[in-house]
Design brief:
By secondary structure, the protein is an alpha/beta fold. Helices cover 47% and strands 14% of the residues. The strands form 4 sheets. Strands 9-8-7-6-10-11-12 form a 7-stranded parallel β-sheet, with helices on both faces. The chain has a 3-stranded antiparallel β-sheet with strand order 1-3-2. Strands 4-5 form a two-stranded antiparallel sheet. Helix 6 (159-174) packs across helix 13 (320-341) and helix 10 packs antiparallel against helix 16.
Length: 453
Amino acid sequence: MKKVQLNPVGWMSQLSQIEVSQLQDTAHSQLFHLFKNCCLAVLNSGVDEDNFEALFAPYKDFNIKLVRRERGVKIELVNPPDVAFVDGELMQGVHEHIFAVLRDLLYMGNKYAFLKQNAPADGDSITDMVFDMLRHSNALEGNDNLNTVVCWGGHSINQTEYKYTKEVGYQLGLREMNICTGCGPGAMKGPMKGATIGHAKQRYKNGRYIGISEPSIIAAEPPNAIVNELIIMPDIEKRLEAFVRLAHGIVIFPGGVGTAEELLYVLGILLNENNAQQPFPLILTGPAGSEEYFEAIDDFVGATLGKAAQAKYQIIIDDPEEVARCMRGGFEKVREYRVAMGDAFSFNWSLRIEAAFQRPFIPTHASMSQLALHHQQSPGELAVALRQAFSGIVAGNVKAEGIAQIKAQGPFSLTGEAELMRRIDTLLESFVAQHRMKLPGSAYEPCYVVKSE
């Protein structure tokens, strides 16, 4: 039996005795089981696998324990994966990520009762919680420089697209911009990898590679090795809010249904009339050959949310330098607006996010079938329903609880207005045809069926 004890790092290195006791009290809770699985995923960083069962199967004897010490708490790993070690020593980045999981799931989980009925429910309280979690992770420190670019895109992309994400990251890095992604592989890793080279060439010493994940997806997208600040939000909605409030601009690369969900989320927020004056640089970009992909996305947005939504972003094909220049120009407008509003540079308080975008959506066969997929509602309301539909498909594709439901009860059923359902089906079929639902080499079995009313 292999055992490894880890000394605490970062903020978790100084805890009171009460805080240590509270952490130890979680040892037999559902939250601790979630913590254990997230730690195992972190220890498998770099493994090319998006099936949680295949990822966890070889480690049935893995365990994790909290060891009390006077000044805090150590973590003991029992039979951890060898891939996390170099010559018998745990990689420093993985070590830091393990304590980030401890901070966000157990410490903050206790504070906000993530798995209980009294977790924050009203909009202002949720935003305060998102702020508090980002503050505890030190993500807000250094964010005053107005240089954080959130990059979204698929974990299942081809090599041409992956190289392009690196080139965009490189151009952003040359302009001393920092990168925030979903922390996984593919379009989440490429921009960080490119930015490290750009930062090195500029001798930029404060390179930040922020990865924001959530417990149910981290097994499918373990943090890549470049992430130097890992944050795990309790659910997808709080993860998305953390992205948009931390970001000074967003770049979206080709991706699948998860990327479409993210785009619908930010568009739904920007369509809110309270955000009409809010400058928010939003660029969709990809290499030559990705034109068809972005045309399909743009057509879908136009047909569902309208021209007002299309006006919120620009599409740039095969021009990384132009992406970086446009983003830099957009930051100046953000600066002017934040100064005029008296808003913080580190956290976008003035962005209005309606409760419908904040409340957790739990994908089940019942909730998916009851989504309001029709045009007899505002574009913002339709954006909520479409995001939830795509979120459910992500769950059915890669999340443990979603996969279990599909196995037990068959595919989720999406039902709605005939023309809208046709457009949804066409878009999803294009993702399947382009192998954007699963990593290359794995056959995709749809977790959904699309029906017209």
